Give the backbone structure.
Amino acid sequence: MLHRVLTAVLALGLAGSLAGGAQAQSPGTQDKLRPDQLKFREIYKELVETNTALSNGSCTAAAAKMGARLKAAGFPDSDIVYYSTPEHPKDGGLVAILHGSSKTAKPMLLLGHLDVVEAKRADWVRDPFVFNEENGVFYGRGTSDMKVIDATWVDVMSRMKEAKTPPKRTVKLALTCGEETLEAFNGADWLAHNKRDLIDAEFALNEGGGGRADKDGKVLTQGVQVGEKVVQQFRMETTNPGGHSSVPIRDNAIYQLAQALLKVRDYDFPLELNDVTRAFFAKAGAGRDDPMGRAMVAIAKDPNDKAAEAELNKDRGFHSMLRTTCVATLLDGGHAENALPQRAGANINCRMFPGDTMEGTKAQLDKAIADPGVKLIPLQPIRAKSTPAPMNPKVMGAFESVAAKYWPGAPVIPTMSTGASDALYLIPVGIPTYGVPGFWSGPEGSGAHGLNEHMAAKSVYAGRDYLTDVVKLLADTE
Ligand SMILES: [Zn+2]
């Protein structure tokens, strides 16, 4: 995903040191695998070893390899649609269709981005584009984000095809590019606007969820991502006639901007809750026995509980889940070292709570800054209001009933991401999108977007079995 949840980001440093200690080659676990697991491992390996970074990789090449595997599993050419645009020949993808037997059940969509964040060989312990298995851990760029899910989708589609008896529901697979880089050609966005019928589905399964384990690998919780915040950027700008720096006055574009920035720092947007975050705080809070847990349960009951809000605000992740946030991220100003500045500017990066709008967010910022000389200019793209996917009981029920088999006692908790994923493009065109539970990482995180990205083999194989069961169950549930 484009912006991993905060906990994963904070864990990056630890993940690096953990990975650094495991340089010695150790035998893999291949010899103990079932034949179907070996086949899956091959797909996962092939994906990780196909560089799909924006700078020097190719999603089109990865899509072609996955298409060849689907074809080998029995998909006719007519059910595998490759797409790309002439301007972005390396950012292509594919849509594959497994036809269901039911005349009434609506299709479901499996979504996965093929692209990965850049990875510099010199900074990594191992080659990021070589699939390494050491001491029960897979290393390589994309092992976590999100080629493990892509491989699972290709694998489950292939096995359902090989089974000969079609599922009730048509199952579609979309492998896309451009999720990790804001300026890149985004395949999910392109499909949503140019091939809406091809990907039409009652709901989609995507990245963004997942489990958390303790340091011994015991799975404590599984999360489902239902909805996410939306990015909206503003340029904040001040202007001034300027003049010679030898005769300064108080009225100065840089000082004026600086004062406005401090007002943004000190402004807390009002607390908001929706069905997803209310369920998250109630369920996740009930599982802990500390002041934070009690505050989580309390806020779910009463959003006006100020003491609970104050406690939750101590956690930067919860603080962000409870409201729209805006923060200064870039700064510029002045034109010469011996001149009074004529212009100063800053980028304000806002993460809007679902339902909030650009206009409403701007109005609150303008009010907090309270200086008509400070301009806030909304930057493209101007985001439509994001609506969270409804908590579809059919989908949530499947996640929960299968999880009870794999991780008894670990609750399945709905979460709202403070970051962004490709769900952003599908939800507005009417395809509710859920970030799947299944794969987990421990307290050290997975190194996603960072160094020495990795996934424990235990998590890979269990997560893949779990998701296979979930997909088959949903495909047969009308
Ligand atoms: Zn991702």
Notes: The radius of gyration is 24 Å. The chain has two domains: 6-228+388-475, 230-270+323-378. Confidence is low (pLDDT under 50) at residues 3-27.
